[in-house]
Automatic annotation (TrEMBL):
InterPro entries to which the protein is assigned, alphabetical: Ala_racemase/Decarboxylase_C (IPR009006), DAP_deCOOHase_LysA (IPR002986), De-COase2_C (IPR022643), De-COase2_N (IPR022644), Orn/DAP/Arg_de-COase (IPR000183), PLP-binding_barrel (IPR029066)
Class in the EC hierarchy, top level: lyase
Presence of the UniProt keyword Cell division in the record: no
Organism placement in taxonomy: Bacteria, Pseudomonadati, Bacteroidota, Flavobacteriia, Flavobacteriales
Active site positions, chain numbering: 328
Protein name stated in the entry: Diaminopimelate decarboxylase
Keywords from the UniProt entry: Amino-acid biosynthesis, Decarboxylase, Lyase, Lysine biosynthesis, Pyridoxal phosphate
All copies of domain Orn/DAP/Arg decarboxylase 2 N-terminal, residue ranges: 23-266
Pathway connected to this protein: Amino-acid biosynthesis; L-lysine biosynthesis via DAP pathway; L-lysine from DL-2,6-diaminopimelate: step 1/1
Species name: Flavobacterium pallidum
GO MF term list: diaminopimelate decarboxylase activity; pyridoxal phosphate binding
Gene name per UniProt: lysA
Subunit structure: Homodimer.
Origin: domain of life: Bacteria
Statement: the UniProt record of this protein carries the keyword Glycoprotein: no
Length: 402
């Protein structure tokens, strides 16, 4: 997308505004499938938690993806979007047993990461195929909050507990049809990922009727010019070769599965906000926008960086600004950042806003959630209306106070 297109959309739909480029989503999907084109059977399950708008899900269905879900609500959204149940994998953590049973009744692939839940489910539903999420105890991820494969993680069943898993499977007679791992987000070192993959291959040897091996995701995307990213092509070359060799050794056709979220939608997303005030203090120039961490919490939550561009003044002189929001507490998007000169009324564009931005938004300070627009075939299409006061009041119950 061009800055002039984004500026036009901000004028058409107002601000703040989330915009998603369908062509970029499709190209990222194609890049991933091309990297693993030498694998006989590949399944890409889009991680719904990254961006769950129903139109985005339908876009993924159209290009051939499955879905990775972590809640019964995401399962229901996937089914509502038209996905077949067998194209959806459900990987919860810490949910009620009743929710897992509900997902199983809907016919989706169940993925279990807890020994007690595995035993309970296997005892009650031994004929329902189950995938097991292994914790390989391999640290990967750009931040402790998004690294989930280490030894202290709440996710997965420890690889060291394999004897317990096998005892449960034998005692219940349950059918294990998949093995899964996820080490964390923002993977930089391919060799670390391949090392974890070897642990998954070793675990898979314990089960003779597997249909797939799920390697999770966590591929890093660039957040600024010159930033490092996961070399998908190199990973595809190395892991495909190893997977094909293991498949022959295993003696049964297997599907290689991934569950990317950020990799597919992050770079496709843009967040547009208008500058309300430019405030000079004794040491800082603040650019205050008509949004806050209620709409883009990632910088405040775990220090993520989003490139910020003044699309209203692309040829202006660069100055240093601290970009802040209107939330009534510390609410900083960027400190002392070089941005083309900002004036009140300018539109700032936050890049890499496709993943975990709208999906983590809130109504803090009783602010409305923004609209969402899909840039599809050269046209902006509204895929979520901006909230109104009616939306804030919809589920509230006013009682008489005397």
């Amino acid at each position: 997308m061009q800055p002039k297109d984004l500026l036009s959309l901000s004028e058409q739909f107002g601000s703040p505004l989330y915009v998603y480029d369908a062509q970029k989503i499709e190209s990222q999907y194609t890049r991933l499938t091309s990297a693993f084109s030498k694998v006989n059977s590949l399944r890409i399950n889009y991680a719904v938690k990254a961006l769950s708008n129903i139109s985005i899900l339908r876009l993924f269905k159209n290009i051939g993806a499955g879905l990775d879900t972590v809640s019964i609500q995401e399962v229901q959204l996937g089914l509502h979007a038209g996905f077949e149940a067998e194209k959806i994998i459900y990987t919860p953590n810490g949910v009620s047993f009743e929710e897992i049973e509900e997902a199983a009744q809907l016919g989706v692939q169940i993925n279990i990461d807890n020994l007690s839940v595995l035993e309970h489910f296997g005892t009650k539903h031994p004929k329902v195929p189950v995938c097991i999420r292994i914790n390989p105890h391999v640290m990967a991820g750009g931040n402790s909050n998004i690294s989930v494969g280490h030894i202290d993680s709440k996710f997965g069943i420890s690889i060291h507990q394999m004897p317990h898993i096998l005892r449960i499977v034998e005692n219940t007679g349950m059918h294990i049809n998949g093995i899964h791992m996820h080490t964390g987000s923002d993977i930089l070192d391919i060799e670390v990922f391949l090392y974890a993959a070897e642990i998954l291959f070793d675990a898979a040897k314990n089960f003779r009727e597997l249909d797939f091996l799920d390697f999770g995701s966590g591929f890093k995307v660039p957040y600024k010019k010159g930033d490092i990213q996961t070399d998908i092509e190199e990973l595809g070359k190395k892991l495909s070769k190893r997977f094909n060799a293991f498949e022959k050794e295993y003696g049964r056709a297997l599907t290689l599965a991934f569950e990317p979220g950020k990799f597919l939608v992050s770079e496709a997303g843009f967040f547009l906000a208008k500058v309300n005030v430019v405030k000079q203090t004794t040491s800082t120039v603040f650019a205050g926008i008509d949004s806050g961490f209620n709409h883009l919490i990632r910088p405040m939550l775990y220090g993520s960086q989003h490139h910020i561009e003044n699309i209203s003044n692309l040829k202006g002189k660069e100055r240093f600004y601290t970009v802040v929001g209107y939330i009534c507490e510390t609410d900083t998007f960027a400190n002392n950042r070089r941005i083309h000169e900002i004036n009140e009324g300018d539109i700032l564009c936050f890049h890499n806003a496709g993943a975990y931005c709208f999906s983590m938004s809130s109504n803090y300070n009783s602010r409305f959630k923004p609209a969402e627009v899909l840039w599809y075939k050269g046209k902006g299409i509204l895929i979520r209306e901006r909230e109104t006061l009616e939306d804030l009041l919809k589920n509230q119950v006013a009682i008489d106070i005397e």
